[in-house]
Design goal:
Layout lengths: L2 H23 L9 E10 L6 E4 L8 H4 L1 E2 L4 E2 L1 H10 L3 E4 L22 E2 L6 E2 L5 H11 L2 E6 L22 H12 L4 H5 L10 E4 L12 H18 L4 E5 L12 H8 L5 E6 L20 H28 L5 E7 L18 H13 L4 E3 L4 E4 L5 E5 L6 E3 L1 H11 L4 E7 L4 E8 L2 E8 L6 E7 L4 E9 L19 E5 L6 E4 L4 E8 L1 H14 L1
Length: 534
């Protein structure tokens, strides 16, 4: 080919390529993400983060007794199935009940277990459910047992010897004996009761709401006994993990006990506990007391969101206390629920009006998962209290999830193993993000009462190839759950559209999990870099 013709053809090719590039420059580009995730793992999400809390409540609420089927002499089948759906990482047994609970009354032959008075909640407890039955339930639903021991009745002297002469307090020796009973392979007492293999219970709590009220231990006394109990119990099994009480007194101005507790007892503790049940607006005009919310549901929605901010402030306060001591101890929120009047019976807790509050609460705990390793948004099971996660129809019937239980089940079931950062997020969405391999999980709450929120997703350095959404989105935010409609808050699974614009419209007031699928090659590359840095 003559040189002139070759140069002409090269010039034409160059012009053609420039024309193509120019045309591409004018093509619409993929929109910038409104939700941007940094995929680098920041911390491990504790398998016990999503906790449920079980306490025998006597005549106040059927609770534990209602979950037991005396015809089959076993846990109710519908109850077990529902708890499996909730998928709690851990189940806690105790509460105020632990102040007068003597664990030996709940083991051994059933016919020889004494009925005991329930001093806090009224009536009698049969002790049909004790250590063996509680551990059995945990094993069936895949939860790690957590036991609150009788911590010298939290200093409440009325239980040291009651008016009838009964001694209802438990000392460090009794707590240590309980550890041996469940964890010592050769424990003769447990083996005599027909259980040859140890249970290996690792989570134990010392003291329950010890700082609340003026009739219990002082801070110094509580810390002194914490050291005493911890040494006695860990002497029996050094591998157990102990939770000490670190909350403040009854007044908001009272200082946290956590700082001094960890300064003096931090070497024998693994967790410091607080409870999160005093979310209550101080304004006398609040619509969250009684039934006023029914006339102004949108205002109730806004007040609930305002309440949720207090949870983060309390967690940050405790984190600062631990950080100032350079303590490696973790945080355990071993009880927590909305405290609205009428006490434990406010019907708003049956309605989806509270759904986003619960979602935002659990998102706060997960975002602070580097410290928070145990948390809950509800009591566990019962027949009457609206603060429960699981409600039992009695004497028989269905077991169903309250809004708090539905949110916790959704988030626990669809979650990653490591927390990651949300670098960009619309103001009307509350998001906690996690990762497991080539999948990103977004726990999303639309905070807007009226309007849907559109979001486009992006992950730094990784291509999103698609995914799915699990959504709880009642059309009426005053929708309530009941035994007549037990599944109204069951999440619906939907495919996430794939393509250059990976986006979703979150309905007003909805709670969702977005599961993003990542391109394998890019996910592996980023993952490899991450592993090298960790």
């Amino acid at each position: 080919m003559p040189h002139g013709r070759r140069r002409f053809m090269q010039k034409c090719s160059a012009l053609a390529l420039a024309s193509v590039m120019d045309s591409r420059a004018h093509l619409p580009s993929a929109p910038s993400p409104s939700v941007l995730i940094d995929p680098k793992p920041l911390f491990e999400i504790s398998p016990t983060l999503y906790m449920q809390f079980m306490e025998p409540l006597g005549i106040t609420d059927g609770s534990v007794e209602a979950a037991w089927d005396y015809d089959t002499d076993n846990w109710r089948a519908d109850f077990v199935a529902t708890v499996k759906d909730v998928a709690p990482g851990t189940l806690r047994f105790g509460g105020i009940f632990s102040r007068y609970y003597r664990w030996r009354e709940g083991v051994g032959p059933v016919e020889k277990r004494p009925a005991t008075r329930n001093y806090a909640w009224g009536g009698k407890e049969t002790n049909r459910v004790g250590t063996h039955e509680f551990v059995d339930l945990c094993r069936r639903v895949g939860a790690e047992p957590l036991v609150a021991v009788n911590f010298l009745s939290d200093g409440r002297r009325r239980f040291w010897k009651t008016r009838s002469g009964a001694v209802r307090t438990g000392d460090a020796q009794e707590a240590a004996d309980w550890v041996s009973y469940v964890n010592d392979p050769d424990n003769a007492e447990r083996r005599a009761n027909g259980v040859a293999e140890p249970y290996n219970l690792k989570l134990w709590q010392l003291g329950n709401e010890t700082s609340y009220g003026n009739d219990g231990f002082t801070k110094d006394e509580s810390i002194q006994h914490t050291v005493e109990f911890a040494k006695a119990m860990k002497q029996r099994d050094p591998t157990i993990r102990l939770i000490g009480w670190g909350d403040r007194g009854s007044k908001p101005s009272d200082p946290l006990w956590a700082g001094e507790l960890l300064d003096r007892a931090g070497t024998v503790l693994d967790f410091v506990a607080i409870h999160m049940m005093q979310q209550r607006l101080k304004s006398p005009s609040t619509v969250l007391e009684g039934l006023r919310y029914q006339q102004e549901p949108e205002r109730a929605w806004e007040e609930l969101l305002e309440l949720s901010t207090a949870i983060e402030l309390r967690i940050q306060e405790l984190e600062e206390a631990l950080g100032s001591l350079k303590s490696p101890v973790s945080i355990a929120v071993t009880e927590g629920h909305l405290s609205l009047r009428p006490r434990n019976l406010n019907p708003i807790l049956c309605e989806w009006l509270t759904g986003v509050f619960h979602a935002r609460s659990m998102n706060i705990y997960q975002r602070h998962g580097a410290r928070v390793k145990i948390a809950t948004a509800a009591d566990f099971c019962g027949t009457r209290w609206t603060t429960n996660a699981v409600m039992l129809q009695v004497p028989r019937g269905v077991t169903y999830l309250m809004p708090a239980g539905s949110v916790m089940a959704l988030f626990k079931t669809h979650n990653g193993t490591r927390g990651v950062a949300v670098k960009l997020c619309p103001s009307d969405l509350d998001i906690a993000a996690s990762r497991a391999g080539d999948r990103i999980f977004l726990h999303v709450a639309n905070l807007d009462y009226e309007r849907p929120a559109q979001a486009t997703f992006g992950v730094e350095g990784i291509t999103v190839t698609g995914g799915r959404v699990f959504e709880i989105a009642p059309q009426n935010l005053r929708q309530a759950v009941s035994e007549d409609q037990p599944t109204v808050f069951a999440p619906k699974e939907k495919p996430l559209p794939s393509g250059p614009e990976c986006s979703w419209s979150f309905p007003a007031g909805s709670v969702s999990v977005v599961e993003l699928h990542l391109a394998a090659s890019s996910a592996e590359g980023v993952g490899g870099d991450i592993q090298k840095r960790m």
